[in-house]
Write a structure and sequence with these properties.
- By secondary structure, the protein is an alpha/beta fold.
- It is 41% helix and 18% strand.
- The chain has a 7-stranded mixed β-sheet with strand order 1-3-2-4-5-6-12, sandwiched between helices. Strands 8-7-9-10-11-13 form a 6-stranded mixed β-sheet, sandwiched between helices.
- Helix 9 links the parallel strand 9 and strand 10 (276-279).
- Helix 3 crosses helix 10 (300-312).
- The protein starts with a helix and ends in a 5-residue tail after the last helix.
């Protein structure tokens, strides 16, 4: 979450604006603090800047290094960094990329939709080099703040915006859907599988569409139940939807694209024999896991790091960086012992077919 020093700097910067904005400045600083979860990790993950770091136009007040200065990245998140799913994975991706690149990190999580713009504006006012928005739902806020602060750079994960100070990073939703659907088709005993989305975003709908196609390529008679939670943070809603799919449609394999909502779905599956979940975007399971049988792993750290390198080289913006099986940004996670060896082997062959573009033509 944002540090006390940053809050003080923010107030000082805004006090330099016309008096009419003073109250808004104070309220914004309080709001930014309130949006942060008090139970999360320490407020800033700091690493020494790399020796070859270049200069940035943003003018941050980070510690000087043997090069010009260190760089800072901030993440704005509508769920929690400890949600056990999307939020946690994206936060860890930022931290890992920063550790490799020598950047400092800070975050604000549990941000309400109405506050996206306010929180991003506060980080822009503080001169952060990069603001990381980990989802398509932040698109409008990113576009608005990026236009108002052309010197600040923005990463939009699962976005499709390309401007001089916005780079979109886009894991291949089609391949993600194929990978999850193929495993669901191989593992389902009831012939009924489920999908839970957070919001009806284009990327989520693409994952669902290709999840269904892949599962039906394995088993033409398989049926897919799907629902949208209308949230990325409502754990109870995820548990409710999954429980309903299990009792009503005999769903035995679940896959979700809904962050903390997916955690709730796993709670519904826990303790039920033969009912499993496929994780994403991190490697969420283990060989001993009884619920998560495998994960579709997205290396968001590699995508974020590529953006950091562009900032350092002053070549940032105006493009989309794609991640798929061919460049290692998608991969298969750890198999649970619940997945028989023959199915593991068959699945890995299918993944190679997906990579080669010959699984579904």
């Amino acid at each position: 979450m944002i540090t006390n020093t940053d809050k003080e700097n923010l107030i000082m910067k805004k006090m330099q604006k016309p008096a009419a904005f003073l109250m808004a400045a104070l309220l914004a600083a309080v709001s930014l603090s309130a949006c942060s979860s008090p139970s999360t990790a320490p407020s800033a993950e700091t690493t020494a800047a790399s020796s070859d770091a270049g200069s940035s136009a943003s003018g941050t007040s980070a510690a000087e290094t043997t090069a010009d200065k260190s760089y800072k990245i901030a993440m704005v998140l509508d769920s929690s960094i400890s949600d056990g799913g999307w939020g946690a994975s994206c936060y860890q991706a930022m931290v890992n990329a920063a550790a490799e690149s020598g950047w400092e990190t800070v975050y604000t999580d549990n941000v309400a939709t109405a506050d996206y713009t306010t929180v991003m504006t506060d980080y822009a006012e503080l001169g952060y080099d990069l603001i990381f928005a980990p989802g398509n739902q932040y698109t409008d806020a990113v576009k608005q703040v990026a236009e108002e602060y052309p010197e600040i750079k923005f990463i939009l994960l699962n976005g499709t915006v390309e401007t001089e100070n916005i780079t979109s990073v886009l894991p291949d939703a089609k391949q993600i859907g194929y990978m999850a659907g193929a495993l669901a088709g191989l593992m389902s005993k009831t012939g009924n599988i489920g999908f839970i989305g957070g919001m009806e975003l284009d990327t989520t709908k693409a994952k669902l569409e290709n999840y269904e196609k892949a599962a039906q390529k394995i088993n033409p008679d398989i049926k897919v139940s799907s629902a949208y939670a209308g949230s990325f943070s409502d754990t109870a809603k995820g548990k409710e939807i999954a429980s309903s799919m299990i009792s009503t449609y005999d769903v035995d394999i679940m896959f979700g694209d809904a962050s903390a909502v997916d955690t709730g779905a796993r709670e519904a599956l826990a303790g039920l024999d033969g009912r499993y979940d496929i994780g994403q975007p991190g490697d969420l399971g283990s060989a001993e896991d009884k619920v998560i049988i495998c994960s579709v792993v997205t290396d968001n750290a590699a995508l974020v790091k590529a953006c950091m390198e562009d900032v350092e080289k002053d070549t940032f913006g105006g493009r989309t960086i794609y991640g798929d099986l061919s460049n290692g940004c998608l991969s298969v996670g750890t198999f649970s012992s619940q997945v028989p060896k023959d199915i593991q082997d068959e699945y890995l062959k299918i993944v190679e077919e997906i990579k080669a573009g010959i699984f579904i033509q």
